[in-house]
């Protein structure tokens, strides 16, 4: 496996004419041959190198209701039910961010998921990658309080990997706009040690 992906808010299910094409693009023979794994509320295991550690990744495209986009759920009970099914995993891929973690919009609202934020201390993935709120692009490492279970990750790298330039950081000093892939919206690269 080289790449894992989840759907997102722009993956409109209402575009019936495109669904087959999109599914083939992310799940068809060419995608499989290229090592792409599409995850929709699914887990996948892989090794980064021969005889290396077995990594687990879980991906979910859902995020709290936001402007009637695709893969939305209602906050509260719907969110808690969905997130209760998330298993412990090394790498967690979600479309939306947890509440108050790279989730601040242009209008200064925190729109991340409260239920996801509440579930993360139990999951403690080594890496949590999400997007959705482009203007909140960034990364940080959070240390977790010590627990008796030594198998849990002691820290998690959180990455808002949305890299389409938006918001005040998308404007250059002196005028003009940052282009796709330019600082501060460059891709975030995370190295996880295979022997960890």
From TrEMBL:
Transmembrane segments: none annotated. Gene3D superfamilies: 3.60.21.10. It comes from the Eukaryota. This is Calcineurin-like phosphoesterase domain-containing protein. It comes from Rhodonia placenta.
């Amino acid at each position: 496996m080289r790449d894992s992906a989840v759907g997102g808010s722009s993956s409109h299910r209402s575009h019936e004419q495109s669904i087959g094409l999109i599914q083939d693009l992310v799940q068809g023979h060419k995608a499989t041959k290229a090592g792409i794994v599409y995850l929709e509320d699914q887990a996948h295991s892989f090794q980064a190198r021969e005889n290396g550690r077995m990594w687990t990744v879980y991906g979910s495209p859902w995020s709290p209701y936001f402007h009637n986009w695709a893969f939305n759920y209602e906050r509260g009970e719907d969110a808690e039910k969905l997130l209760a099914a998330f298993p412990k995993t090394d790498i967690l891929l979600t479309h939306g961010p947890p509440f108050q973690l790279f989730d601040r919009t242009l209008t200064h609202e925190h729109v991340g998921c409260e239920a996801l934020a509440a579930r993360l201390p139990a999951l403690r993935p080594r890496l949590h990658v999400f997007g959705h709120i482009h203007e909140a692009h960034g990364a940080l490492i959070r240390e977790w309080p010590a627990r008796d279970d030594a198998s849990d990750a002691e820290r998690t790298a959180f990455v808002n990997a949305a890299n389409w330039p938006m918001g005040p950081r998308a404007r250059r000093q002196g005028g003009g706009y940052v282009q796709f892939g330019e600082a501060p919206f460059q891709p975030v690269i995370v190295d996880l040690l295979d022997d960890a």
